[in-house]
Write the structure tokens for this entry.
Amino acid sequence: RMLPWLARWEASPIDFATRLAAEHGAAVKPAGGRLSVIQRGSGRGASGEALPVIRVTRIGSLGWQGEGEPRPRFSDVVASYHDPKDGQRKTVKHSTGKQGPVHTIIHPRASEDEAKEAAASKARDLTMQTGSASFTMAYDPAHSAGAFVEASGFRDGLDGRWVSETIETTFDKDGGAISVISCKAPPA
């Protein structure tokens, strides 16, 4: 989709790209001489293909933690835009599928389509912020940040689907390696 003219003010090119990606519910990463943009929480890699699901079970896990409350929950996200036809400021609403107050995006958008996209992106982000977890396990080179994590055998609230945000791996001098997979709740 073509974006209207935007100013890059006091920001490096990568900071500007990161901000634009975040506003559209994506993450940006330079790799291999290219700039990859990936929708957050999609479980897909830069190529667009689904990443292998990371399966984590209590038996065989080296540690875990998780919380689902008291993270903020919002019912709707409201975004505004300026309608050039009648000179009025108008709003659009996007549901998160949750119960709670309404979140209002402060800055108005240039068009109704941009406002709808901004509201949907923010609703997706707010839904992912309703829970977090981390799992510690033996290193597996097939695991990728951004992949879905299927947890089982832990407890209610921790079992189920998560989205891996980061994977930090520590290698020791004896050749062992341990990964900590940090996760967020999946988007609605």
